[in-house]
Design goal:
alpha/beta, about 250 residues, about 15% strand, binds NADP nicotinamide-adenine-dinucleotide phosphate, 7-stranded parallel β-sheet, 9 helices, Rossmann fold
Length: about 250
């Protein structure tokens, strides 16, 4: 299989890994993450593993992304970018060290900005970019104790996405996906509570979601069927953010 690459950050785990597996039969993937071992495991679980490549980089090092991504592309181009890399720390805002706040923003927000900037450069990507999907969070819509910095980084992604959609139209469509809680290593602590299933049943009108619910939406947004959709925050959360009376 030939043609442009689809870059998926956060492809080594959870939602990003599921998106990679979902897209792997129809697209050539560049799978981003830090752990070579985890990236290899996901690549092997994809359809046609030999068609896909990996890109190992710690996205908290934003200035280093340019050289590392250029090396990973090795002259190939990217027509779709999905930013699923993310880091979460549930900590009271007043006790979080500034360094950690910056670290969360670097991975969740600034690395995506830098990657889009690089992929928009004709010299690096030959005007190949057509689609950007930023994995945001329902946390950008609802308040929760201990979540202020993570939520702010996801709100920044949504605001960036809207202006970018206007700036890059009509060649590139840009959208964000706002997932509710699905089972991945990131949500493991919340879902390991003894009463987790009862809390989900009370708060999610459609019950528990899965990473594939997010991957299906990503696949749709990349497709021609979404050709008239840009600049949107698309919520996929089983009705969580529509529900007025949350139980904690
Ligand atoms: N799970 C949920 O309920 C939920 C709900 C709403 C939104 N989200 C969002 O969905 C996205 C995916 O989350 P997930 O649930 O799939 O979490 P996950 O299983 O913990 O995966 C996080 C991914 O981000 C990558 N990552 C983290 N820090 C990185 C760094 N410094 N440099 C490069 N990559 C880094 C990880 O790579 P390594 O393998 O290198 O660690 C991993 O591939 C995140 O943006 C998250 O905020 C998740």
């Amino acid at each position: 299989m030939t043609g442009p690459l689809t870059l998926v950050t956060g492809a080594s785990s959870g939602i990003g890994a599921e998106i990679a597996r979902q897209l792997s039969s129809s697209r050539r993937l560049l799978l981003g993450g830090r752990s070579a071992e985890r990236l290899e495991a996901v690549r092997s679980s994809c359809e046609r593993p030999e068609s896909h490549r990996t890109w190992r980089w710690d996205l908290s090092d934003v200035p280093g992304i340019a050289a590392s991504l250029e090396e990973a592309l090795a002259g190939e181009v990217v027509d779709a970018f999905i930013h699923s890399a993310g880091t979460l720390e549930l900590t009271a805002f007043r006790t979080m060290p500034t360094e950690r706040m910056i670290g969360i923003f670097n991975v969740n927000y600034f690395s995506a900005v830098e990657i889009v900037r690089l992929l928009s450069r004709a010299a690096l990507n030959q005007r190949a970019l057509r689609n950007v999907i930023l994995i945001s969070s329902g946390a950008s819509r609802v308040g929760e104790k201990g979540n202020a910095i993570y939520a702010a980084s996801k709100g920044a992604l949504n605001a960036f996405m809207r202006s970018l959609a206007i700036e890059l139209a009509p060649r590139v469509r840009v959208n964000s996906i706002l997932p509710g809680m699905v089972r991945t290593p990131m949500s493991e602590i919340a879902l390991s509570r003894a009463d987790a299933e009862a809390v989900i049943a009370a708060n999610y009108p459609l019950g528990r979601g899965e990473p594939r619910d997010i991957a299906w939406l990503a696949e749709f947004l990349l497709s021609e069927k979404a050709r008239w959709i840009t600049g949107q925050e698309v919520v996929v959360d089983g009705g969580y953010t529509a529900h007025a009376n949350h139980v904690s």
